[in-house]
Automatic annotation (TrEMBL):
One of the Pfam families matching this protein, by short name: PadR
PANTHER family xrefs: CONSERVED PROTEIN (PTHR33169:SF26), PADR-FAMILY TRANSCRIPTIONAL REGULATOR (PTHR33169)
Transmembrane segments: none
Keywords: Coiled coil, DNA-binding
Name of this chain's protein: PadR family transcriptional regulator
Coiled coil: 135-176
GO MF entries: DNA binding
Region entry Disordered, spans: 191-235
Keyword Coiled coil: yes
Domain Transcription regulator PadR N-terminal: 12-60
Amino acid sequence: MSRRSGILEFAVLGLLRESPMHGYELRKRLNTSLGIFRAFSYGTLYPCLKTLVTQGWLIEEPGNAPADLPSATSRAVAPTSSLAGRRAKIVYRLTAEGKEHFEELLSHTGPDSWEDEHFAARFAFFGQTEREVRMRVLEGRRSRLEERLEKMRASLARTRERLDDYTLELQRHGMESVEREVRWLNELIESERSGRDQRRSTTEGSPHQDTSGETDGLPRHRDSSRPDPSDDTTK
């Protein structure tokens, strides 16, 4: 299995864990919720779904076509949309084995989970991931980016004199992007630690309370479109 197809299978299983979906709806969710899949097509999705069905992780069920399927005109123009229109009557549902397999994938914290595309997919399902696993993935990602940043700085120091202004600016832009993500990861890691410590202190004496999937540590960034909490309104 290629890394790309493995990420897609992971994302499909994760979305179907939330609820059964038509292929058309799945593609929309993958496009809108997981930006790494913006460019993929039905020709990529349906073989993936068939593979998951064959593995016993999904089942196909008859269902009504979603209201927002491509129109007859657009289907005539785009053959892939026509294919989607016919197949959208099938609903894909996660099996018990599929749920167990997805939970196993969620527990993985190896180097693949730190890479760019896989990390984005993993982070999208952090709400379903145990806190300790989230911490290991975040720390692994930070370590990987710090290594990348060190190499970028060393490369820039060696080649600075040979670069024109625009290439130099592009190099700086790349470094700044990595630095921003490292700062973001530092904030997330600190928030996870603070949330874990807070949960530990507040649940003393309640050993049977399950907090493995809690996301209390996630930093909350204020939405300027919402009223200020000092106005006695609920966020």
